[in-house]
Each structure stands twice: as C-alpha cells, then as structure tokens.
Amino acid sequence: MKALILNSGLGHRMGVLTSEHPKCMTEIAGKETILSRQLKLLERAGIREVVMTTGYFDKVLMDYCDSLGLSLHIEFVNNPVYDKTNYIYSIYCARDYLRDEDIVLMHGDLVFEESVLKDLIACDKSCMKVSSTAPIPEKDFKAVIKDGYVQKVGIEFFDDVNECQALYKLNKEDWNVWLDSIEKFCDEKNTNVYAENALNVVTDRCRIFAYDVKDRLCAEIDTPEDLEMIKERLNEVTGNSDKTVYMCFSADMIHSGHIAIIRKAEKLGRLTIGVLSDEAVASYKRYPLLPWEERKSVFENIAGVEKVVEQKELSYKAILEELRPDYVVHGDDWKEGFQKPIRDEVCEVLASYGGQLVEYPYSKEDKYDELEKRSRATLGMPDQRRGRLRKLIDMKGCITALEAHSGITGLICENTKVVQDGKTYQFDAMWISSLCDSTAKGKPDIELVDMTSRFRTIEDITEVTTKPIIFDGDTGGLTEHFVYTVRSLERMGVSMVIIEDKTGLKKNSLFGTEVEQTQDSIENFSAKIKAGKAAQRTKDFMICARIESLILERGMDDAITRAFAFADAGADAIMIHSRKKDPSEIFEFIKLFREKNKTTPIVLVPTSFNTVYEDEFKEAGANVLIYANQLTRTGFPAMQNAAKLILENHRAKECDDICMSIKDIITLIPEE
Ligand code: SPV
Ligand code: MG
Predict the structure, then answer these.
(1) CA–CA dist 564, 576 (Å, integer)
(2) I want to staple 250 with a disulfide (CB 3.0 to 4.6 A). Which of 281, 386, 444, 460 is the partner?
C-alpha cells in the first residue's frame, strides 16, 4: 500500500505562516508539523512508500522530508503548473506511480488522530472519512451518502450529507476507476476542478464506504484560526502519545528502581528502551549474566515499553540520531564520573534537533548494590567463568589479558578501568604466568614451582575475581601428568591452558637461544594435545598449543608446519612467540596461518614486539593479546626502591612520596 499526499497548494489563507514554506510544514505541536506527524503516523501504520505531489517551495519541502530521517521512501512529483491548476492535475502528474496500487490518499493539511488512520487502513472496503456528528460546513466538502456509501463529494451538496475530509483508503480496483476518470478530466483540460468531480461521475463503479469517525479528530487547517483550534484539540486527544521517549539499560537484573524510572518515563510519551549490547556491557561493567536476546525479551514484556532496540555502544549518539526521540530519560547520577562525557554528548545531540533530557534523582539503595554483588559472585563460579573466554573471543574478535600472580594483582586486573573518548576500557582476562608466579615465590621459571603451588595461586585469584583465566602450563609435563592437570584446571574454572612445545628442562623463552632448550617433536606434542582434549570433561575448556620455533630460530616453515599439525591434533588455539622487537615475523606467521585456517584463535604475547597497537594485531587476525609480566616488572622494582630508600635514610619518611596512602590501598580490596 502506498500513501499519496497532496502538497502542491500554498495555503494562501494562512497568511505569513506560509510565506517561507508550504502549508504542510506548519508546526502543530512543538517542532511537530502537519507533515511530520502525517509521515510518522504512516510509518507507524506500516506504510513504506509515499508519493508526494509538490508545487510551492518544493525544494524546501524535499529537504525537510529528508531531515526527518524516517524509514519511508518518498517519491516527489512536481506539478509544474501548480498555481494554475487544482490538485486533480497533481494526481494526474503522479499517475504512473499510483496505478494498480492500494492507496491511502490525504490532503497535506489534514490533522487526524492515529486511530482514524489505522481504522481506515484496517477496513477491507475502500473508504472515506466522514463524521455524522460534526457540523455540516457551509463552504467545505460534504459527502452525499446512500446505503453507507459515498455518492458524491463536493461543497455544493446539502441533502443526505455528512461532513467529510479528503482522507481515503482506496483498494486498487476502486482507485483505478477513479484514476481513469481523473486522467480523462485532465486529458480534456478539465484541470481546475476537484479530483472528487472526477469521482462523482464514477461512484457506481468506485464504491467508497463512508467511514464515520464521529467525534474523533480529523480536520484540515485552512486558516490561523483552524490552526489554533486544532492545536488545542490535538493536545486534548493525544496528550503525550505523540511524544517519543528513549532510555537505555544494560540491566540483566531488573529491580524496583528500574521499574520506577520506566513508570515515570512512559508518562512522557511512547517509550523505546535501548538495551546495551553484550559487548558494550562487558566493556564498562562486567560480562552480562543474560545474553542480549534474553535481556531484550525481559524489557519487551514490561508494561509501558513500546519497543526495544539494541544500543551497540555506550555512546547514545548513533541511536539518538536514528530515533530522534523527544525525550531521553536518565537518573541524575551521570552528571559526574565516567558517564559525564556520555551525558554531555547526549545533550549535544538532543540540542541539534530540539529534544530534551529529563533526569530523575538517582536512588542509590544498598539492596541494589547487594544484588549486584551477588551477581558478580555468580560470575566467579567455575561453571560461569570457564566458558566466558571463548564467548568474549567470539564477541570481540580480539581480547586482552593481563598477568596476575596473586589475589591483589588479580584485583588490579579485575578492576582497572580507563575512560577515553566516552568509551571504557578494561582487561578481558587474566594470565597466570609461570615467570611471574615463580618470581613472586622467589624461584626461577624452570617448572620448579610445582602444580600444587601453582593451583594455590589460581585459587588465591579466583577467590577474589570473576574474569576468565588463561593458565601458563609450561610444557604441560609428562602426558600422563598433563591429563590430570587439565581436569584440575577445569574444576577450578580456568578457561584455557597454554602449553609450549618444549621438553626437558624448560627455561623462560625470553632467554631465546642463550640457553639450551629442546623442542618437542610434532608427534609427541600432538599426542599430548590429543590426550588433554580427551581428558577434559567440559566443552568450554581450551587447550592452546604454543610454538617455540621462532624463539629457537628454527624458521617460519617449522613454525607454520607445527601450527597446522597442532590445530589438527585438536588444539583450540595457537600461540606463536617471538623475542624480536620487530613484529614482522609475527605478522608473517599470522598471514600464513590465516591463509588456510580462518577460525582457530591466535594468541600473542607482545612483550618484545610491544610497539604494535591492539587494533593492528586484531586487523592482522590475532585474537588474544597477553600482557604477560608488566605488573611483576613494575611492582617489584618499586619495592626494591622503597627498601633502598629506607636503608639509605634510616627511616621511612622519604618513602612517603612513592607510597600509596593507607586509605587507597584499603580501597583496592573490596569490602565483603
Ligand atoms: C610467562 O609469562 O611465563 C610466559 C611468557 O611463558 S614468556 O615469559 O614471554 O615466555
Ligand atoms: Mg611461562
């Protein structure tokens, strides 16, 4: 079904109100014009195509329609002799777009209630709006009605008439008959009459039902007095139902605070809720307990919510530019803190089109904090935590992990956030490095710290955090031992173990060829991977094969051959390591691997090749970036320095400047 809107006339009787634009652009409620309202109602009624005839100020009209940003395709048809003809000729000009279509026809100066349009469209017969209760106008259109159907329309009839307006729903069979008659009139140069004159001669074949809307609003605006009267009526009948309201939620836990603000928002108009995407929630808060689809469905089922859409970013800019709501509603808590830049941007976008921000006092209640704490705790449980690494990789494409070797470094990784340009950044996962775990225990990184002790570190960290864990499993040890390690790690909620293809006494890779190291054979290492995969009890757990060929200078061919072999053996991810500052061999490896394998995640530890930005690695095809030792390498030298300062000064005062205050150190540890 197409809509036909007749906008070729100027509306001389409106005086100065139409000196710069056509009558349909007259404002009837705030910035809402007769036309913007008509178009929005058509859009809401499911119409997608509009044919609009133009005349006066056609460029102004076209630009205006464009600026409304509606999802309607509008075909503009100019009547070149708009000042010498009546709208019958405008329809004639547009006839090629209109034939064989069901049509909603309306004059461009009509204002009607939404239900009037909806009812006409829903009527299966062709129909015209009439009112049996409105006074019979002296000089305007009346419809002569017989047996419920329109016989004639014109200003000259007074018997058996009802007031009527040029708002029709026409089924194509009836419309084609009327359009033929219009064509005939115009071909015979009869262009200064109403289109209804052409209707009146074919009503035996063009059957139009007189749809009585009684007292509902459907009136034209011809004069400034009409305008004032209709503005008032419109306000009475629509209240706020013409206004649109937008709110955004991340919540996977709806509580009475959310419902209370939704109740307030819905009073302002028709409410659309934006639900933040999983990625946006994970970026600023924590991984959502419920995926987006479920959160969407929860909001869809709250009374008063008309529509739910996805807000892909913390920034509201894109969604506001698309929806252009009259109001954005939010708690006033975002006037300060990390959300302030987001609020500032919202104000800017709203100002650009005349929208308004409505803020309600934010009620911080302990019970909500308690609920949030409980849901965070759930995220830390082994079954919840384990599968999240894979989900994050799927969701973000490339994730970051930071080294943690104790409860406190785990908390730093869990809670450190940075806000830049309205976006929040935090680490996605934690890396339990053999180097840092050993260093924290004052031992060399040679698989000397036994598994029981390494597991203790994992437990210290899991007790106080929720983020997924990648465990540095060194060589994995004997295959017979590795299978037990896999199950223990799974039980603890670890998401991934990385084992390197070395055998014998392992030393840290960053020594390169300075130390004697033996690379395991492809066969042995593949067998270890297979055994690990067979041993695991959950489907979430990942085993990553780490290739040492570049570290041991065995060449790219060896590295890539191993990568394909280990992926074939069942490795869930491939880590390639290098100790060169120049990242080219890493990029070359990624390119060669991705030529044949598009899906197996690639893991990198950019300690030496650290000039490359995360986005560049992501672009190249990497999926996990591990910052493997930076907390250890910054934390322990700071301690060494403090120890020296005390010894040198024989007191602790000189240390004060480099010490965190007691208050700050306490706040690093969340209260239970
Ligand atoms: C570790 O952090 O222990 C690692 C990475 O295995 S590296 O030190 O670069 O070898
Ligand atoms: Mg290690």
Answers:
(1) 12
(2) 281
At 337, the amino acid letter reads G
C-alpha–C-alpha distance, residues 285 and 283, integer Å: 6
CA distance 510 to 628: 12
What's the rounded Cα separation, in Å, for the pair 134 and 374?
Answer: 62
Is residue 392 within 8 A of residue 287, CB to CB? The reply is yes
User: Are 538 and 528 within 8 A, CB to CB?
Assistant: no
566 within 8 A of 526, measured Cβ to Cβ: yes
- The span from the CA of 418 to the CA of 125, in Å, is 62
Determine the average pLDDT of the residues in 512-533: 94
> Where are the strands (E) in 185-326, listed by range?
209-212, 218-220, 244-249, 270-276, 305-311
Ligand 1 atom showing the smallest separation from residue 551 Cα: 10
User: Terminal CA-to-CA distance of the chain, rounded, Å?
Assistant: 62
| CA 317 from centre of chain | 11
Count of helices and strands (H, E) across the chain: 26, 30
Cα–Cα dist 89/107, whole Å: 14
Ramachandran area for residue 431 (φ above 0: left; ψ -120 to 50: alpha; else beta): beta
The three-state (H, E, C) secondary structure of 123-166, written as one string: CCCCEEEEECCCCCCCCCCEEEEECCEEEEEECCCCCCEEEEEE
Residue 672's pLDDT band, with cuts at 50, 70 and 90, is: low
Question: Is there an atom of ligand 1 within 6 Å of 576 CB?
Answer: no
Ligand 1 pocket residue status of 631, Cβ below 6 Å: no
510/406: higher pLDDT = 406
Q: Under a CB-based contact definition with an 8 Å cutoff, are residues 481 and 454 in contact?
A: no
Side chain identity at residue 621, one-letter code: G
Ligand 1 centroid – CA 505 distance (Å):
15
Instruction: For residues 97 and 90, give the distance between their C-alpha atoms in angstroms, rounded to a whole number.
Output: 12
Centroid of ligand 2 to alpha carbon of 608 (angstroms): 15
For residue 238, pLDDT over 90 is answered with no
445 is catalytic: yes
522 phi and psi, to 5 degrees? -60, -40
**Residue 557 DSSP label:** H
> Crossing angle for the helix pair 407-415 and 451-464, nearest 10 degrees?
40
**pTM > 0.85:** no
